Amino acid sequence: MTHFPYVGGELHVEQVPVRRIADAVGTPFYCYSSATLADNYQAYVKTLGALGVGIYYSLKANSNQAVIRTLGQLGAGADVVSVGEMHRALKAGVPADKIVFAGVGKTELEMEAALEAGIYQFNVESFGELETLSDVAARMGVKAPVTLRINPDVDAKTHAKISTGKSENKFGIDIEQAAQFYSAAARMKGIRIVGLAVHIGSQLTDIAPYRAAFLKIAELAQTLRKAGLTVERIDLGGGVGIAYRDEATIDLQDYAALVKEIISPLGTKIEIEPGRSIVGNAGLLVSRVINVKAGVSRKFVIVDAAMNDLIRPSLYDAYHGIIPVAEPASDAPVERCDVVGPICETGDRFAEQRPLPPVKPGDLVAFATAGAYGSVMSSTYNTRLPAAEVLVRGDRFDVVRPRPSYDHIIGLDKIPDWLA
Ligand code: LLP
To answer: Is 276 touching ligand 1 by the criterion CB < 6 Å?
Structure first.
């Protein structure tokens, strides 16, 4: 069920008209639907939770406190990749023993802070990191619970910039070195080796690479056990890909069936770290048309959101649906437009030659499926104020991150005395 219906000719988020939020908050703003967050999370609970899989929401997709709190209250743990994200998870109310710390370059300070907090697990990605973590933990008189993230050398068949499971990618420990490092870890003073982790990429829409990776991990787990080592946890990484434009993607039931077939028989605890599939389709970026420029060869719709707000189209050539907030008549003509932001770069383009109904200055449009990797990847490039963020629940909405002021963002700079 969509929580973004047109009601009375106006786009709503749950029961709130988008226009009402725009009038109150100004544009551009991100708007998230609590009901969609809950539906997406519950879909994981129903399919994978039923197999005993622990769900650790991947904060990198959207780390707004209100989003984390919403999911945390439903029972989600957190997957973090920096101590900053760990602080966000803790502050939003996720207990330390439900936090997994992943990432290819954890610093000693980050390790210390995470050990201090008493997190559930570190996913370690290199031998050097294992040694450093062991030293830090031993110094603190504790043992760090560790999985080794394995690079299974499997092509995830997703965008090159978010594909992580091939040996030429920087992530994980080559599967050939895994057994040697695992047994070394078992002897390290500050390490309690608990299992294996794997993540081959994000936005996977084909299940075959998961099968290939899971088979390799299951085989490795058995090899380790034969060598007398304990493997008690397996972390399967991010969630399934989502539909940005009606493309087919992986059915969670099929994914769960794969986990049941290949991983469950090992009898370990199982974990998953979904981000995009929980928040992606729960969010819109709402923007107002500034101007419409009919050039000789192209029509440009210039909106007040830009690549600093949502960088996915520029960075990954990603597709986001563009929804007029006022419902177009069913027989409205469509015209191909380039939808662009005000930033001084040609790459500041949300869509090229997109068929759109007529739009004019002042109209509101919403970029769809913008809840994941949207606001978190934003910047203040061109000294643009970051978009506000709003959370809707039923007939209520609240600003969950206000737009900062120019004084705030400019005031972060400091002029040295010798320039005064
Ligand atoms: N676990 C690990 C170790 C990861 O690296 C990631 C994503 C996830 C979990 C969550 O994956 P998800 O369920 O969201 O697919 N900015 C890019 C996506 C980067 C993904 C990075 N890692 C985008 O906008 O498409």
So the answer is: yes
pTM exceeding the 0.85 threshold for the entire prediction: yes
Pick the CATH number of 6-32+280-410 from 2.30.30.370, 2.40.37.10, 2.60.40.3410, 3.30.70.360: 2.40.37.10
* The one catalytic residue among 248, 296, 344, 419: 344
Q: Quote the pLDDT of residue 215.
A: 98
Q: Which two tokens stand for residue 310?
A: 């949502």
Identify the H or E element spanning 53.
strand 53-58
Among 22, 20, 8, smallest CA distance to 305 is for: 22
Q: What is the pLDDT of residues 163-212, one digit of tens each?
A: 788 888 888 999 999 999 999 999 999 999 999 999 999 999 999 999 99
Number of Cβ atoms within 10 Å of the Cβ of 384:
20
Q: What is the pLDDT of residues 324-342, one digit of tens each?
A: 999 999 999 999 999 999 9
202 CA to centre of ligand 1 in angstroms: 5
For 19, 27, 32, 154, the CA distances from 385, given in Å and listed in that order, are: 20, 11, 19, 40
Q: Which residue has the tokens 């007029």?
A: 324
Query: Ligand 1 in contact with 209 (CB < 6 A)?
Result: no
Cβ atoms of 37 and 71 within 8 Å: the answer is: yes
Q: Which CATH superfamily is domain 34-277 in?
A: Alanine racemase (3.20.20.10)
Please tell me the distance from the alpha carbon of residue 382 to that of residue 185, in angstroms, as a whole number: 47
Q: What's the maximum distance between 2 C-alpha atoms anywhere in the chain?
A: 72
